Amino acid sequence: MQNEYVREEKIIEKTELDKEIELIRSIIKTREELKRDNKNFEYAQDDLVDYYSYQIKANQAKLDYLIKMAKEKGIEVDMINDIKFSFWEENEEAG
User: Fold this and answer.
1) Whole-angstrom Cα Rg for the chain
2) Are 63 and 34 in contact (CB under 8 A)?
3) CA distances from 70 to 14, 53, 63, 89, 95 (A)
4) 7: part of which helix (H) or strand (E)?
């Protein structure tokens, strides 16, 4: 018997707008993670100091990259702030 993969749903390509929204949401999420890591770093002790310093460095590099991508696509900070509010509303409804 040969096992074959059967796709159950059609894969839908993302539009440029969907890609931009996903990029903006990634920026917002990374910003929030960076804020959280900075706050946790303030209270960290022992090995957690190293952990949070690595997390901060990684999230800062990720944020820099995402912002660079957004600038290349012509996305402005105002667009990011506008979508930030809808991002939080969706998270509140889910949680």
Assistant:
1) 18
2) yes
3) 17, 26, 10, 22, 28
4) none
Closest by CA position to 83, among listed 28, 15, 33: 28
pTM: predicted TM-score of the whole model, two decimal places: 0.70
Q: What is the pLDDT of residues 11-60, one digit of tens each?
A: 678 888 888 888 988 998 999 999 999 999 999 999 999 999 999 999 99
Structure tokens at 84: 């930030």
CA angle 58, 61, 64 (to 5 degrees): 150
What are the Cα distances from residue 62, in Å, to 5, 45, 75, 89, 94? 35, 25, 17, 24, 26
Residues 82, 53: Cα–Cα separation, whole Å: 30
> What is the full DSSP assignment across 41-60?
HHH--THHHHHHHHHHHHHH
Conformational region of residue 46, where left means phi above 0, alpha means psi within -120 to 50, and beta covers everything else = left
